[in-house]
Design a protein that fits this description.
By secondary structure, the protein is an alpha/beta fold. It has a domain at about 45-145 and about 160-175. The two termini are about 15 Å apart. Helix 8 packs antiparallel against helix 9. The relative contact order is 0.17. The protein has a six-stranded parallel β-sheet. The protein has helices at about 20-25, 25-35, 55, 60-65, 100-110, 120-130, 130-135, 165-175, 180-199; strands at about 45-50, 75, 90-95, 100, 115-120, 140. The model has no long low-confidence stretch (mean pLDDT about 85). It binds zinc ion (ZN).
Length: about 200
């Protein structure tokens, strides 16, 4: 039987070493993250992923793939007790009755950072309920009706957009330049393909 200890995994993307695409996809950012803190992608805002501890080390976590690409994408390990005041002009990407469609919100309000809860729907609901600092941010959402169905295939029971897709669609709603986004989609499909092949 194959266990996760059978082969070494890449410390960046967590794929088995033989399936790792990092040197082709991320070499520049990984070097720069260490040396210069520059980005492969210039993003219109900072992306703050608030990741549930259960997701943190999962090799199917797509938030991890995002943060390999840009020094403007940060990953925070969520803790309910963490006293954290949201920075100015921060918004939370989370659907609900009190959420405003992102591009509509951006017309009237400056946005410096987009916070994204990186967890299953069930867990993210709990995380927000338990974190006053997350609740205190204005909520924005994607116009899901106008977006294609999720292409994420790594978790059988997931039908909604994964974190990676949500973030790229959010960037799409905010940016006029879509060149970066093509590259981000290419990376998403390459990573997913490499992962599926490694199984
Ligand atoms: Zn890798």
């Amino acid at each position: 039987m194959k266990t996760s200890n059978d082969s070494a995994s890449c410390r960046h993307c967590r794929l088995p070493i033989q399936a790792c695409q990092c040197s082709a996809l991320f070499q520049r950012t990984l070097l720069q993250k260490n040396l210069l803190q520059e980005s492969l992608h210039e993003l219109p805002i900072e992306i703050e992923l608030c990741t549930h501890p259960q997701e943190w080390q999962k090799d199917t976590n797509t938030g991890n793939w995002l943060q390999l690409q840009s020094a403007q994408i940060h990953r925070h390990r969520w803790h309910r007790k963490e006293p954290q005041t949201p920075p100015a002009n921060a918004v939370l990407l989370y659907p609900g009755e009190d959420a405003i469609e992102l591009s509509e919100y951006a017309k009237d309000h400056p946005i410096d950072s987009l916070w994204v809860v990186d967890a299953s729907w069930q867990l993210s609901h709990k995380m927000i309920k338990q974190s006053p600092w997350l609740q205190s941010m204005p909520k924005v959402m994607l116009d899901i009706e106008k977006l294609p169905a999720s292409q994420y295939q790594l978790r059988r029971n997931q039908k909604s957009l994964c974190t990676y897709e949500s973030v790229v669609y959010a960037l799409q709603a905010l940016s006029s330049n879509s060149d970066n986004l093509h590259t981000m989609w290419d990376i998403f499909h390459t990573m997913q393909h490499a992962y599926l092949k490694s199984r």
